[in-house]
Amino acid sequence: MTMAPNRSGGNREIVATLEEIAKLLEAEDANPFRVRAYRRAARVIDGLSESVRDMLARGADLTALPGIGADLAAKIREIAETGASRMLASLRGEVPGGVADLLQVPGLGPKRARLLQHDLGISGLSELVQAAREHRVRQLHGFGARSEQRILEAVQAHVERNRRFDLRIAGETAGTLLRHLHRGAANGAYTVAGSYRRCRDTVGDLDVLATARIPAAVIRAFTSYPDIDQVLSAGTTRASVVLRNGMQVDLRVVRPDSHGAALIYLTGSKAHNLALRLLARSNGLKLNEYGLFRGTTRLAGETEEAVYGALGLTWIPPELREDRGEIAAARRGELPMLVKTADLQGDLHVHSSASDGAADLRTMAREAARYGLHYLAITDHSPRVAVAHGLDAGRLRAQADEIDRVNAEGGGAVLLKGVEVDIGEDGSLDLPDDVLGRLDLVVGAIHSHFDLPADRQTVRILRALDHPHFTILAHPWGRLIGRRDICHFDLERVLRALAQRGSFIEANAQPNRLDLWDIGCQQAKAAGVLVSIASDAHGPADFGNLPLGVGQARRGWLGPSDVLNARPLAEVRTLLRRTM
DNA sequence: GCCGTTTTCGGCCCGACTGTTTTCAGTCG
After folding, report:
1. Across chain A, what does the average pLDDT equal?
2. Letter string b/e over residues A117-147, b meaning 16 or more CB atoms within 10 A of that residue's CB
3. CA–C1' A186–B21 (A)
4. Straight-line distance from CA A472 to C1' B1, in Å?
5. pTM of the predicted model, to two decimals?
6. pLDDT at residue A199 tops 80
């Protein structure tokens, strides 16, 4: 499973450096536990909700972090203070450029990559392909014609498949596959586990758990799925395939009495599982995908609750299983009560057909109510977003009158008057203050100039927040998954400013945005800024995306009290007025 | 490289699958 890039604002550079060190050490065939130590440190830094620079500034001791000792603490400090690492520089000199790329090829690990480099002088993917075509690879000890062929296929596939999918595509893909499995092996029970179950913002592959008494029937049904491009492996209890859309699916079959243990194993994360197994081991027990064992005696396995319970833990929601302190919290019985979709009372970022939405106000109000929402902020675009037919002051005034009429009719969610105002390159807003002041809320967002340097981008956003009626900063990072990378700015400074002004930040629930995502939600909570989980709906069906935003909030350990729109309308009105 | 009320050295999660082997190493999740 690969890390998504750019996950945690100020610590990105440290995480990237540590991961590159790990990769180069691995290419050198260094002690695997040493490699693991760097990877673990990268993960720990990645999961921090505070920047290392700030921690050092307040005199924090980095060795207090799990898996970080004196040596790594010094290296991390060096990166934070100088922006560079002498160790990385020297490793780059030692390892021929491109050798580390060999490790990205599925089927090539450190041992065989090193052999290719040492015996054939191969130091890159193109050289690897050439050597395989000339049948020089099969001459090496431990390689054969079959592995030579697989290497060629893998390099090809690697180029095409090295991507992650958004949750809508993952969900649709999983749904179609599960319907096929039910038809082919109807007596099995199926669960999509992995990062999809943990509500990661994107997924690299699908992990499916099947519980069945006759595993062979399930494997047969799985590998005969028509949408398969390639079967990577198929044994008696597990199989891996690549689908035509490029997504890899791993299926695991266990008997019903192992369902809980297997579900934990397959849900991950890897780091969480590792920590659980260490905990088991420290109690003289063994945890695997079949259960929790003392010697050969199974103590638990049928349900997740039983396995966690036998380890002295309360059940841990999948969204928290990242080894970011959830195990210690579960041991103390202090896991937070996480926000649920049912907690959402309203939605504070929605479009109508007045701009680029698909439905009129009445339809949106009615459908929102059907979805269980009590209030809905209509926030169409401002004039500068011309492709979306942005509203000027006159049309906004007319819309306000229409909202009054719809609210008077009743029968749907209460509509609030808002706008999604564009933030200009200089931090100005696209509508005058007096127009914005007549609204219930002002959602501000960036729609252009995503590539400003971080300091200018930060100043731009801070200026926008300074407008007297600014309420909610929407989809702050501006990313579109798979299409547009995040813009760079200092989230911590922005959060401090939002907290001072009594303003809010959005966790946008569109599957191709999910922005903020988990760490950002956690940082908002730490800064004391309430999060608005918003559908950004452009039609009634988009309310169905709200659970995806809730997933990010849950991954950020947010409870109902941390979420602006988990509060009743009267309270939200009071909070909104405070910013006006 | 980290870590320790059994340990400051010698461990470091655990099992499935593949290919090249004749009992297993390498890789993956």
Report:
1. 92
2. beebebbbbebbbebbeeebbbebeebeeeb
3. 39
4. 44
5. 0.92
6. yes
